[in-house]
Design a protein that fits this description.
This protein has a 15-stranded mixed beta sheet that branches. It is mainly beta. The radius of gyration is 21 Å and the shape is globular. The chain is built from three helices and 15 strands. The chain is 7% helix and 54% strand.
Length: 262
């Protein structure tokens, strides 16, 4: 019924986009805030946001959202240029019994120049009325060629110089990862006077309290002071200062706690 559609009298549970261009603005709930009020159970629904009585005001209670080959830009307040992800493939499903399942694959940057990311997450208990910072989730993440310094600047942070790859499990609360465990590949990294040319380790645990709203620079010193980590070194090659003999670390284990490395 086209008239019911135009007058917002049809309820949409499923939306699929092919090659969309989506522009999001910063919100307290993060870049996915636009979807939060649309995820609801049964016949509970929300309007698209248009004034009541206007034409084309679809009603949404989404259980299935799919994006194929999309481009998403996210603009932070006070930033001239948005953060762009391309070649985006995403799938989000929701049921009251199983919560929210989300899958995302994307190239970071207009040409993928900042790396690629694949993420699968599960929020077992979803409540659109609850503070998003208290929502717990688990998942699997794989990142390749992640250029930390440039990615941090795009998000208003000052992150260390490094190119990372990661494949492993992640748990978090709200928009902040709380624990990481998996395989880390690092190259071209600078941590103060330590220069890592290449390295691989197995991360058993990495816990670091993070203020999602903080814009203070992330430095090697602050990481050492606040992080708790357990890891196995597979191999690391680097130098303590530029133009000094190379240091080669063979397999071993390490624990970092309150700036104490053992």
């Amino acid at each position: 019924d086209v008239w019911a559609l135009l007058r917002g009298q049809l309820l949409f549970h499923r939306v699929e986009w092919e090659k969309p261009r989506i522009a999001l603005k910063e919100a307290a709930a993060g870049p996915f805030a636009v979807f939060m009020p649309m995820l609801s159970g049964g016949d509970t629904s929300v309007s698209s946001g248009a004034p009541s009585g206007e034409w084309w005001t679809p009603t949404l209670a989404l259980h299935h959202v799919k994006i194929t080959d999309g481009e998403v830009s996210y603009r932070r307040k006070g930033r001239a240029a948005p953060f762009v992800v391309t070649r985006t493939h995403a799938l989000l499903t929701f049921t009251l019994e199983r919560g929210v399942h989300a899958q995302l694959e994307a190239a970071l940057g207009t040409k993928g120049e900042f790396g690629t990311l694949a993420l699968r997450t599960h929020l077992p208990h979803w409540d659109a009325q609850r503070d998003v910072s208290q929502l717990a989730w688990t998942g699997h993440v794989r990142g390749d060629g992640l250029v930390l310094r440039e990615l941090g600047r795009l998000m208003g942070r000052e992150w260390p110089v490094a190119t990372l790859g990661f494949d492993g499990q992640v748990t978090g609360k709200g928009l902040v990862p709380a624990d990481l465990a998996g395989t880390v590949h690092i190259k071209k990294a600078h941590f103060g006077s330590v220069h890592v040319q290449s390295g691989t380790n197995t991360q058993k645990k990495f816990l670091r309290p993070v203020d999602a709203t903080s814009t203070k620079p992330v430095t090697w010193a602050t990481v050492l002071q606040t992080a708790t980590a357990e890891f196995e070194i597979n191999e690391v090659r680097g130098t303590l200062k530029e133009h000094t003999p190379q240091v080669h670390l063979l397999p071993g284990t390490g624990v970092l706690r309150a700036a104490d490395l053992t």
